[in-house]
Design goal:
Chain B: It is found in: Cytoplasmic vesicle membrane; Golgi apparatus. Chain B: It comes from Carassius auratus (Goldfish). Chain B: One of its GO terms (cellular component) is cytoplasmic vesicle membrane. The complex is a heterodimer. Chain A is of the alpha+beta class. Among the domains of chain A are: about 1-100, no CATH class; about 110-215, Leucine-rich Repeat Variant; about 215-295, no CATH class; about 415-600; about 1015-1140, Immunoglobulin-like, CATH 2.60.40; about 1140-1250, TATA-Binding Protein. In chain A, α3 runs antiparallel to α4, α7 packs parallel to α9 (about 140-155) and α10 runs parallel beside α12. Chain B has 5 helices and 7 strands; from the N terminus they run ββαβββαααββα. In chain B, α2 (about 85-100) packs across α5 (about 135-165). In chain B, about 45% of the residues lie in helices and about 20% in strands. In chain B, β4 (about 60-70) and β5 (about 70-75) form a beta hairpin. Chain B has helices at about 25-40, 85-100, 105-110, 115-125, 135-165; strands at about 1-10, 15-20, 50, 60-70, 70-75, 125, 130. Chain B has a single domain (about 1-150), classed as 2-Layer Sandwich (Beta-Lactamase). In chain B, the strands form 2 sheets. A 5-stranded antiparallel sheet of chain B has the order 2-1-5-4-3, sandwiched between helices. Chains A and B meet through α1, α2, α4, α6 and α8 of A and β2, α1, β3, α2 and α4 of B.
Chain lengths: ~1250, ~190
């Protein structure tokens, strides 16, 4: 056997391996393709062999060839074979090849599912690792669905190496199978706090990637991330989290406020540039989201700008680039802060690095103002000259136009200057952006009426010198400008001084070399010019000039009639015939100018680019409805062979057109216009594509005369510079004029003299050179103010927009292979975890609908079942997840319950950094203030003492409790109207004769009114916790934390001595165990006593709690040493502390008038609860609410009572309890809806227990 | 997300390509060519970021690259990645290669494409950064290398001997990328763990 293997490998060693292949390719440089094709033939032979080693070698070579661009998908099946090898070496080769060339279209992928599943559960971590890596590259929706559960299991693998890979790959799974997101999310979230930094980082990575696409669903994680941000030292993690916050802040401005401080701290403290940069970026995002209301707003901005300046000034080009990039973000909201660094940015324009120059250009865009526009553009024009013939120059050109045209030419004070700039730009050779310049020319000429005269003159010059633009080059991008020039000259020909000359220029034979669409415009506008010329000469006795013009056209137009371009030809022959006709009329001395001009009459108004989209669909128009009934399927099928019928069909459809109503026609006309706008032969993006003949309101547009102090034509080549000087002078003049009136000459001189030392002018000081009317773009009537939905429907992340806070539904379980019975038995905890809680959940859901008796039975049954479960972990899971989930699902069933999810409210709480103090609360209910205030204050003082008294005696036997119960009932019947504190009284009374050391039986059918509950117990010790935590509030000392004291009774059940008890809980974000100063956050507290056998004692622990609107659960451990005569052992007891919302309520008396005012104030939000099958007497019910939930009865009338309580943070909680026929309805109001919701849930639970 | 990782030499010959989105082989080659065209015409001391890897993804993406001796290492990433972080990641990648190949040079990459892929797989998975700690990466790579060797066992011995003979006349190019040569100012990310 061994011999065979050796023999096989000896055969093999003369096969080509990867190295040989590479060497071979390198040795066959001249006929590489041929060599490779022979190699591929060899590989094909090798793949046919049975030896897996040979196959793996072949696949390895294929991977190399794939990199060189050879398609190797034909070997997909062999790759799968190699993947399924049992040897890691080959498996890895297989997975690598698969990851390089498999994709969703590869059909053999579906064969791999089981193989991958096997590898995922392999005992060797590297098999699993390799499978995960491979899968991450080629996961398909099917694979994702089938393997999601396996991968989820791996997220809790013992090896961090596997865990981190499993966590990362979940992102790919989510993308392909969005349904898996909700079931997997809790575990993913858990991994954020994984002890292994790698796993943690992976989880952060995945959640950040998810949150980036759908940030709003992840807002509730903000507190967790905030904690990570302040505790993590891993820069990768920090950067990701900080980036994530950048995405979250726009959704939640309060978050931003909370972020500023830690971020600024990081900015100051970090030495890592990457971290600094991301912090600055996020601070910018925060500041953008907080438009106002930040006192130290400007300080943060200043800090950012300052730091960015340091980056930009750095010699490292990378930092410079990033600095500019971040600067451009600040620019959008705080242009002033950036503008002060103009010098630096202009400097960057000279940088040798193109990326940096481009970034600097971006910045310039936002830095211009009316004041500095000319100056900046002048600088850019210099750069344009320097950067000849590069793409950078084109970029400069577009930037100049962008800068000038931004926000409706806001910063242009002198449009003549702008036109000159545009004309100067036409001198650029070989630019691709001719059409851009052209459209700017058109736009300005149409929208700025005052400039038309000047523009026309300039365009006429351009037309005259057209040879310069078209002359020496075939790269005729710039000749597009002539299109604009011709159109402007034609359309606004009334401004032309020498229309004849321009007409002549437009009809030169050289024009025929221009592109067709330009020629067409030439011809059309020549006709317009012709009309103008005719009109000019109208009335002259000598019609010679007019006739000469006609002759010119008749001579020149035939050239265009012969044009190969249809458009040119058509227009030319039309106009030619027209002119011939006119000539005839002229010869008869008929006055034709009027008629000819009428051909081109009318004003053009610009139309907004979105105008068409905004046209509302007329009422009653259903575009999807059939106009005529469609021919039925069967009919057409039957008749198809007959040729005659198809003819008829044709007719039929034609007649359809004629039936189209007016609206439809109008719509089509619009559509056609739109089409024309998109047609390259029409002017793109310019509003001039159609004439509006009956534009109403044109007359109302004020046309202002050009200020003639500005010369119309400036001699000399760089004209725009002249304007710059003129502008300078003009501004000085303006300024001077505004000053005291003195002698004219002196004034001017002084104005110039001051030029150097005069402070910067404010924006308002700059008056436009001439009043400019920028015609706004037209919109259709009734335009819908809708924003365009730009979201790409194909975006895979859209499917991941899933609410993660909703409780899981049964149907959302990840598919588990249930058809194999062994799966359920297998110790794969995960599956057990998943299925069992849901089963019991279902049951518990049913329970509640059933009547009381059935309920009890069921509950017992489920309890018994619980006990049967041997898996400790399962039980834990149950304890943890079930009650919460059950409560939540109940909540959703009841429409009345507040829909706020627990987490969201938690976030709210976390975000309001300073919760409303009680004083402020009372301000919100001012009417009740006086009454409540005094009483509550009194209660506040007295409250902490009372339960303390009660506590020690409160441990009593069940017998006693029953007795007490009875007694209580009796007493309460007597004192129906007695208000508050009576339960305390009772407990006190009961306490007097109580005996220490009692056992509480959980299964008691009627639970006693005890506020002690079992926390945990084992054979040595029993811990009992007082349910009604004694609470006090020291808001005065601690800004926003309340303290809760928990009394725990430790009872030694064993025969041994218990000592060195140490009590510890895992702090949550919200609740923390108060530890002595100097102790670490995870240190445990020593219980200050030892327990001899059979003795019990009580210890108190103080917790600081931030949010009281949510119930809290803390996991904890008690460690102790059991010392018996022979030995001493170290023991451990796990427990869970449950802080209910009720425990934060303080029984507070309230008078009915104050109560009524409180309700009237309208500051409270309502909710309600309905309990069915409550058979206990009403007073009994009230007593329970009072006792367990710390309410006091305000007023009671028959079967209706109002109750009041107040939280330690001053929230008012009001209840109206009504009962009728076993149904209790509770209407509740509170100023904190989530607190109320939780209290109601707890009340409900109290009553569901009995 | 990292969209693609490309390594090619000064002449644009691909030495390794890893695309985290599917493209046909032709498109891949075109992307490599175009990227090379963009990157190679840049001077040595300009910034390492390039916008407009037009073929991959579009304007949201950036090319972040480093040039070591004869090789370009190019990462195409989207906006969720930190630019400076990726630059560091490239440095970590190259340093890891250097450790694993003992003074890495272009030839190592040419002849051991699979190994390069395996190292990369320990750093980046499915387009997301998996591990940035060099020693952790090396540990995992070496552990897998050991596993491979133990699997080869007796059967592998003759093959190894043959390949040793074959490799005797291998060094036909100067064996050094020498990443230490060109001092790259790494923006310091002190704790990369």
């Amino acid at each position: 056997m061994a011999l065979k293997i050796v023999k096989g490998s000896i055969d093999r060693m003369f096969d080509k391996n990867l190295q040989d292949l590479v060497r071979g390719i390198r040795n066959h440089k001249e006929d590489e393709a041929k060599y490779i094709s022979t190699c591929i033939d060899e590989i094909k032979q090798e793949l046919k062999q049975d030896n897996i080693a040979v196959k793996a070698n072949a696949v390895c070579k294929l991977t190399y060839l794939q990199m060189l661009g050879y398609d190797v998908s034909w070997a997909a099946f062999n790759i799968v074979e190699v993947m399924s090898s049992s040897k890691f070496t080959y498996k890895r080769i297989g997975y690598l090849a698969a990851s390089q060339c498999f994709h969703e279209g590869t059909d053999v992928i579906m064969l791999t599912t089981n193989q991958i599943r096997k590898d995922l559960s392999s005992p060797h971590q590297y098999d699993t690792g390799v499978a995960l890596t491979g899968l991450s590259c080629f996961v398909t929706p099917d694979l994702a669905r089938d393997l999601a559960n396996d991968i989820m299991t791996l997220m809790s693998h013992t090896k961090p190496y596997i865990r981190k890979k499993a966590v990362l790959i979940m992102y790919k799974v989510f993308l392909k199978y969005p349904e898996s997101l909700r079931p997997a999310f809790p575990r993913l979230k858990e991994k954020l706090e994984d002890p292994d930094p790698g796993v943690q980082s992976a989880a952060v990575n995945v959640i950040c990637e998810l949150a980036r696409r759908n940030p709003k669903n992840y807002l509730s994680l903000a507190p967790l991330f905030f904690k990570l941000m302040t505790s993590s030292t891993n820069n990768w993690v920090l950067i990701k989290i900080i980036k994530l916050f950048g995405a979250l802040t726009p959704l939640e401005p309060r978050l931003g406020k909370k972020m500023i401080e830690p971020l600024t701290n990081l900015i100051h403290s970090t030495s890592a540039m990457s971290l600094l940069y991301e912090c600055v970026n996020t601070v910018i995002a925060v500041l953008i989201s907080l438009s106002s209301g930040m006192p130290n707003h400007s300080a943060s901005i200043q800090l950012c700008v300052q730091k960015l300046r340091i980056l930009i000034e750095d010699s490292d080009q990378n930092l410079k680039y990033l600095g500019l990039l971040a600067m451009s973000k600040i620019l959008k909201t705080h242009p002033k802060s950036v503008q002060s660094h103009k010098d630096l940015i202009l400097q960057c324009l000279d940088d040798k690095d193109e990326s940096i120059r481009l970034r600097a250009l971006d910045l310039l865009y936002g830095m211009v103002s009316k004041k500095n526009l000319m100056e900046i553009v002048k600088k850019l024009m210099l750069h344009v000259d320097k950067a000849e013939g590069t793409t950078y120059r084109d970029e400069l050109l577009t930037k100049i136009i962008d800068i000038c045209s931004q926000s409706n030419y806001q910063y242009i004070t002198n449009f003549e200057w702008y036109i000159s700039i545009l004309v100067e730009l036409t001198r650029l050779e070989g630019t691709r952006h001719g059409h851009l310049i052209a459209s700017q020319m058109l736009d300005v000429a149409i929208r700025v009426k005052a400039i038309r005269g000047f523009a026309v003159a300039q365009m006429a010059t351009l037309l005259d010198n057209a040879h310069l633009l078209t002359g020496n080059t075939q790269r005729n991008g710039i000749c597009e400008v002539l299109y604009a020039a011709a159109w402007i000259c034609g359309e606004f020909s009334e401004h032309l001084e020498e229309p004849m000359q321009t007409l002549e220029a437009m009809l030169r034979p050289k024009v025929a070399t221009l592109p067709g669409h330009i020629q067409a415009v030439y011809v059309q506008n020549a006709a317009k010019l012709f009309a103008t010329v005719l009109r000019k000469h109208e009335g002259e006795t000598d019609s010679q000039a007019a006739q000469e013009t006609s002759q010119l056209l008749i001579d020149r137009l035939p050239l265009f009639v012969q044009s190969a371009n249809l458009e040119v030809q058509e227009r030319a022959s039309c106009i030619l015939q027209l002119v011939k006709y006119i000539q005839k009329l002229q010869q008869k001395n008929v006055e034709v100018a009027e008629e000819v001009t009428a051909l081109f009459a009318g004003e053009l108004n610009p139309v907004a680019p979105k105008a068409q989209k905004k046209v509302p669909i007329p009422e009653g128009l259903d575009l999807d409805a059939w106009i005529n009934e469609p021919p039925s399927e069967s009919e057409s099928e039957d008749e198809k062979p007959k040729a005659v019928f198809t003819k008829e069909e044709h007719k039929h459809s034609r007649s359809r057109h004629t039936e189209v109503d007016e609206k439809e026609l109008a719509r089509r006309r619009e559509a056609r216009k739109q089409e024309q706008a998109n047609n390259p032969f029409y002017i793109k993006a310019s509003p001039s594509s159609q004439k509006v003949y009956d534009a109403p309101g044109v007359e109302h547009i004020p046309v202002v005369q050009i200020d003639l102090s500005v010369p119309l034509k400036v001699p000399g080549v760089p004209m725009s510079d002249q304007y710059l000087k003129l502008e300078e002078e003009r501004r000085q003049k303006d300024k001077a004029e505004r000053k005291k009136k003195e002698k004219k000459k002196k004034r001017e001189k002084r104005g110039k003299g001051r030029k150097a030392d005069s402070g910067p002018e404010s924006e308002e000081d700059i008056r436009p050179a001439h009043q400019v009317d920028i015609v706004t773009e037209e919109m259709p009537e009734n335009a819908l103010p809708s924003d365009d939905d730009d979201k790409d429907p194909n975006d895979p992340h859209k499917a991941l927009d899933i609410d993660l806070d909703k409780p899981l539904a049964d149907s959302e379980k990840l598919p588990v292979r249930t058809h194999r019975p062994e799966v359920l038995k297998s110790p794969a905890e995960d599956r057990v975890h998943e299925s069992i809680p849901q089963e019991t959940k279902k049951r518990s859901g049913k329970e509640k609908k059933e009547k009381k008796k059935g309920k009890e039975k069921d509950r017992k049954r489920s309890k018994e079942e619980k006990k049967k479960k041997k898996h400790k972990e399962v039980e834990e899971e149950l304890l943890e997840s079930q009650p919460e989930e059950a409560v939540q699902s109940e909540e959703t069933k009841e429409a009345a319950a507040p829909p706020t999810s627990a987490e969201a409210s938690d976030l709210d709480f976390w975000l309001c950094s300073a919760p409303v103090p009680p004083a402020a609360q009372e301000e919100t209910a001012p009417s009740s203030a006086a009454a409540v205030d005094t009483s509550s204050a009194a209660a506040l003082e007295s409250e902490p003492d009372e339960p303390k008294d009660a506590e020690p005696e409160d441990t009593k036997s069940s017998k006693h409790k029953k007795k007490k119960q009875k007694k209580e009932k009796e007493e309460k019947e007597k004192k129906k109207k007695k208000r508050h504190h009576h339960h305390h009284h009772h407990s006190d009374a009961g306490g007097e004769d109580s005996v220490q050391n009692g056992t509480v039986e959980e299964e008691e059918p009627l639970p006693p009114m005890s506020n002690y509950s079992l926390l945990a117990e084992n054979s040595y010790i029993k811990m009992m916790k007082e349910d009604a935590d004694q609470v006090y509030d020291i808001q005065g000392n601690h800004q926003d934390e309340s303290k809760v004291v928990v009394s725990v009774i430790f009872e030694n059940k064993s025969d041994s001595f218990l000592k060195s008890m140490e009590f510890n809980v895992m702090d949550s974000l919200n609740s923390k165990l108060q530890r002595p100063e100097g102790a670490g956050p995870h240190d445990s507290l020593t219980v200050p006593f030892q327990l001899p056998p059979g003795v019990s004692n009580e210890a108190r622990f103080v917790f600081s709690v931030q949010s009281i609107v949510m119930p809290q659960k803390l996991k904890g451990t008690l460690t102790f040493i059991v010392k018996s005569d022979e030995s001493s052992t170290h023991e451990k007891l796990d427990f869970k502390l449950h802080f209910t919302c009720t425990s934060y309520l303080i029984t507070t008396p309230c008078y009915s008038d104050a109560y009524a005012k409180l309700l009237e104030s309208g500051d409270l939000k309502g909710s309600s609860l309905r309990l069915e099958g409550i058979s206990m007497p009403f007073h009994h019910l009230l007593a329970r609410i009072c006792f367990h939930h710390h309410f006091s009865v305000v007023e009671r009338i028959d079967s209706c009572a109002s109750m009041y309580s107040r939280s330690i943070q001053g929230h008012h909680v009001c209840l109206l309890v009504k009962t009728s026929d076993q149904t209790v309805s509770i209407d509740a109001k509170c100023d904190e809806p989530s607190l109320l919701g939780n209290v109601l849930d707890e009340i409900k639970q109290t009553f569901s227990k009995c | 997300m990292i969209k693609a990782i490309l390594i090619f030499n000064n002449h644009g010959k691909p030495r390794m390509s890893k695309f985290y989105e599917h493209y046909t082989e032709d498109t891949e080659q075109q992307i490599i060519r175009e990227t090379f065209h963009l990157v190679s015409k840049r001077d040595e001391n300009v910034c390492n970021f390039l916008e407009g890897g037009l073929l991959i993804g579009g304007s949201e993406n950036k090319l972040i690259y480093r040039h070591y001796a004869t090789l370009y290492f190019v990462f195409c990433v989207d906006s969720s990645e930190s630019e400076l972080g990726i630059l560091d990641l490239i440095q970590v990648f190259v340093e890891t290669l250097d450790k694993c190949f003992e003074n890495v040079c272009e030839l190592d990459l040419i002849f051991h494409l699979d190994k390069v892929h395996n190292i990369l797989a320990e750093m980046v998975m499915g387009g997301m950064v998996l591990e940035t700690n060099m020693s952790e990466i090396i540990t995992q790579v070496e552990a897998q290398g050991k596993m491979e060797k133990s699997e080869a066992g007796i059967a592998g011995a003759p093959a190894r001997a043959v390949s040793a003979v074959k490799n005797m006349n291998l060094p036909e190019m100067p064996k050094n990328i020498n990443i230490g040569d060109i001092s790259i100012k790494v923006p310091n990310l002190p704790s990369f763990k």
